[in-house]
Design brief:
Number of strands of chain B: 6
Order of helices and strands of chain A: EHEHEHEHEEHEHEHEHHEEHEEHEHEH
CATH class of chain B: Alpha Beta
Oligomer: heterodimer
CATH topology of chain B: Pyruvate-ferredoxin Oxidoreductase, domain 3
Number of domains of chain A: 2
Strand content of chain A: 15-25%
Number of helices of chain B: 6
Radius of gyration of chain A: 21 Å
Number of domains of chain B: 1
CATH superfamily of the largest domain in chain A: Thiamin diphosphate (ThDP)-binding fold, Pyr/PP domains
Shape of chain A: globular
CATH architecture of the largest domain in chain A: 3-Layer(aba) Sandwich
Helix content of chain A: 25-40%
Radius of gyration of chain B: 15 Å
Shape of chain B: globular
Distance between the termini of chain B: 31 Å
Largest sheet of chain B: 6 strands, mixed
Structural class of chain A: alpha/beta
Largest sheet of chain A: 8 strands, mixed
Chain lengths: ~375, ~180
């Protein structure tokens, strides 16, 4: 282990990406994600990688997809306005099964909004921003150390499942500096390579919930890439059975392997009668609130998803069955709470605390809610 | 466990964010846990700017300030914005130029901005002068750790000036007019 160092969340993202083997960054700087681009442009060439500043965020993700098809582990980083522009290519990467990592450091919106203030307003956009039925893997770190860990995990899941993975955190996580000790090395997953001869290769040959092997352009395996519905040969088709099979497989390759994807931290939940459900920086407030509530004799606990999509339905439902009240705190006007209500309806009383004034939710207000049993909330 | 929350608030261009980062690094060098967070406006000069530093003996659950123990104000705008938020147990340090005449007796005034001008001819080292004051006033980090952190963080061509600014800040304590 190395010594403790004071790192910003965005710096930890860069270190995690390099540890995971990132070799391409295509992006367009935007507050509050710009430090990722600023560090990547300095560090990536020293690691043998390529950095390109593109003309906008549409082109940024296009360059990332191209680099990944050519064999690179590739990423971009942005914030709300740029994330909106990336939606079309997130769908393209999903359909073409191109591994890539997209970091969205959330700021206040809509539009250019509050550029330097935190928000959790893009939670549903990260799930449903691109059109059509599609899966989404979205990870939500709550600390500088976790940004490092989940950046590595984002690259690994992207490679494992051949899919775009979104790392979603807010301005506070991006800019806060914390003393962290980073691991000397990390486990790294690389995309599966074909075992057949090039003459026998079809790019989308896969079992019903499988992930097809992925050679790089230039390896000698010829293949066609399209955002249209395509068959196992990679060529377009309008055959309904093939369309259904492809869309189903894109979902099932993730849904049938949730144990590799889902991660939920529970804290002091063993005997909890009241739970706070929170993620990102709000999860840190909730952690502190739970500590203070316990000091006051209140049996409070924390349910904090690190993977917010796919939504950890089983874990949240189990927690809901256990407690009398679940407080859902978000820096938006109610996004993930819809999922909590979907899986916990009838199991517990659900109370919301929502904030959109550009300030983080503090432990004090959550403690007050714990003391009042969730009463008197917004 | 002890938890000490410090807020340095001023105007963009005073080095408030850099100063907070240096203080957190000095705290780590002193063997503590520390976090640093910043709030700034879209402008690069002017506008409100603030650094919050949490220093604790144990790992820090909530990394942001929640109940400020010490507030150091370096601009009139910051005074208007942050002084009313200071709780009854919070201690206030304020630059002499931006303290209103009606300032209550528990606050301590230091000529931070004037000292920064005397050292550097401008505002950029204001935050470092404030760090010197903070260290001497509160002993929240070790003086030598703070010197090391300043030297490690500022551009090498400005190390001497910043260390002078730090010493000048430390020198203000003891001779303050409160």
């Amino acid at each position: 282990m190395s010594a403790a160092q004071l790192l910003q969340g965005n710096e930890a993202c860069v270190k995690g990406a390099l540890a995971a083997g990132c070799s391409f960054y295509g992006g367009y700087p935007i507050t509050p994600s710009s430090e990722i681009a600023e560090q990547m442009v300095r560090l990536l060439p020293k690691h043998g990688g390529v950095f390109i500043q593109m003309e906008d965020e549409i082109a940024s993700l296009a360059s990332v997809i191209g680099a990944s098809l050519a064999g690179s582990k590739a990423m971009t980083a942005t914030s709300g306005p740029g994330f909106s522009l990336m939606q079309e290519h997130i769908g393209y990467a999903t359909m073409t099964e191109v591994p890539c990592v997209i970091v969205n450091v959330m700021r206040g919106g809509p539009s250019t909004g509050l550029p330097t203030s935190p928000s959790q307003g893009d939670v549903m956009q990260a799930r449903w921003g691109t059109h059509g039925d599609h899966p989404a893997i979205v990870l939500a770190p709550a600390s500088v150390g976790e940004v490092f860990d989940l950046t590595v995990k984002a690259f690994n899941l992207a490679e494992r499942f051949r899919t775009p993975v979104i790392l979603l955190y807010d301005e506070v996580i991006g800019h806060t500096r914390e003393s962290v000790v980073l691991p000397e090395s990390v486990d790294v997953i690389d995309r599966t390579q074909p075992t057949v001869e090039p003459a026998d290769f079809w790019p989308k040959d896969a079992a019903p919930a499988g992930v097809p092997p992925m050679p790089a352009f230039g390896d000698g395996y010829r293949f066609h890439v399209t955002g249209l519905i395509h068959d196992h040969r990679g060529f377009p088709t309008t055959d309904g059975d093939i369309a259904e099979a492809l869309i189903t497989r894109l979902h099932d390759k993730i849904e049938e392997n949730l144990d590799e994807v889902t991660d939920v931290e529970t804290f002091m939940m063993d005997d909890a009668e009241l739970a706070i459900f929170a993620y990102g920086i709000v999860g840190r407030s909730a952690h502190e609130a739970v500590l203070r509530a316990r000091e006051a004799g209140i049996k409070a606990g924390l349910v904090r998803p690190l993977t917010i999509w796919p939504f950890p339905a089983a874990e949240v439902a189990a927690a809901a069955r256990q407690v009398d009240t679940m407080i859902v705190a978000e820096m938006n006007l109610g996004q993930l709470i819809g999922e909590v209500e979907r899986v916990a309806a009838g199991e517990t009383k659900i109370v919301s605390y929502l904030r959109v004034d550009g300030e983080p939710i503090t432990p004090t207000v959550l403690l007050d809610l714990c003391v009042s049993g969730g009463g008197g909330s917004s | 466990m002890s938890r000490n929350e410090i807020r340095i608030a001023g105007a963009g261009g005073q080095g408030v964010v850099t100063a907070g980062r240096i203080l957190a690094e000095a705290a780590i060098l002193s063997g503590s846990h520390a976090t640093h967070s910043q709030v700034y406006g879209p402008q690069s000069r002017g506008g409100a700017s603030r650094s919050d530093i949490v220093i604790a003996t144990e790992p820090i659950a909530f990394p942001l300030a929640d109940s400020i123990d010490l507030l150091f104000i370096l601009s009139s705008d910051a005074f208007a914005k942050y002084e009313p938020e200071l709780g009854p147990n919070g201690h206030l340090l304020v630059d002499t130029r931006c303290a209103p005449e009606s300032l209550n007796g528990s606050a301590t005034q230091y000529p931070v901005v004037d000292t920064a001008r005397a050292v550097s001819g401008g505002q950029l080292v204001t935050g470092v002068v404030a760090l010197g004051v903070l260290q001497a006033h509160t002993q929240c980090v070790e003086a030598e750790a703070l010197r090391q952190a300043v030297a490690a963080r500022v551009p090498v061509q400005h190390t001497k000036m910043n260390l002078e600014a730090l010493s000048a800040g430390m020198g203000l304590v003891g001779g303050e007019s409160s």
